[in-house]
Fold this sequence. Notes:
Layout: H1 2-34, E1 57-60, E2 65-68, E3 81-84, H2 92-97, E4 101-104, E5 109-112, E6 118-120, E7 131-135, H3 138-145, E8 153-158, E9 166-169, E10 174-177, E11 189-192, E12 198-201, E13 212-213, E14 218-219, E15 234-236, E16 240-242, E17 250-251, E18 256-257, E19 261-264, E20 267-274, E21 285-289, H4 295-305, E22 310-316, E23 319-324
Parallel strand pairs: 5-8
Antiparallel strand pairs: 1-2, 3-4, 5-6, 7-8, 9-10, 11-12, 13-14, 15-16, 17-18, 19-20, 20-21, 21-23, 22-23
Amino acid sequence: MKRRKLLLCWTILHSGLSLIAFLTLLLSKTTQAAIVPPPWSDPEKNPCASMPGGWQLLYWPPLKQCFKIFTIGYPCPETMELSPAPNVGKTKSARLNAPAAECRCPPGTALSAETNKCHEIFKRGPCEHSAYFAPLPEERAAISSGRRSSNRWGSCKMAKQCPVGMIFWPKDGRCYAQYTKGPCVKGKLLVLNEDGLGECKCEPEGVLRDYFYDPEETCHEHYTKGPCSTPGELFLPGGRCDCHRHLPHYNEDHQMCYELSIITNNFVYLGFCKCSICMFHNCRHTWALSAGPYLQSTRQFYSRQHSDRYTARTVSVQGRLCTLE
């Protein structure tokens, strides 16, 4: 009986060791397979690879010298960077004879056929006021430039006209309400820059001063939760978190403030109609989407406190224009 137990224990131990050995071998193979040297680390293709720190160097045949990878400017034109050339060629000989490096536009930029320089995409660049530099599809780029290249090409495009109080965002071709988060990251708001294009920005001066939150140095929409951590407080003009009973956002039952909601066309749209001139008078208001709790109670409270009726007209998925009815 003891011998049988001993054999059973030995079998289990042996199986466990075998499993551990198998997993170790598998992990080793996976690690080895994951480490793939870059093409430019081959000394036959890139003579600089055999030098100390050679994996950061590229050989430039016209000068027969080594340069640090992704260097912007010399030996390339001033706006281009030295990049590894694509590993093209049907035969090994063709691939070895192909250049190890080429001059390309850095990421986030494209080459202009007009200036023969790289410009940042979705910005004004070489374009006229209220126009932006847009990337071209590969097929159109080849036709426009008259030659095929691994470079991305771009051309100028006029910004779309948006309704009053809205700003065009080139990256997705949509209009967003100004001074709202819109397509921006948290802590920045959408404004119209000096080039006539939308820009995500936050600064403690100018038009954004009233939206600036000093403790975090971020910008937020008014009458939203924004940076406020205390339940029932909203971010108010002047850059402070507060709540008082004179606001239409104030709920008497909870003695808290909530972001307003308005129901129209059987859909719930969240936000608040506001403009720089007035709040509840006969003027054009900018409607900013937001999120808030207690939708039904805040809607009823809003209707109870203000006899003026407002309607929302759809302008885009991200914004609304509110007009007094």
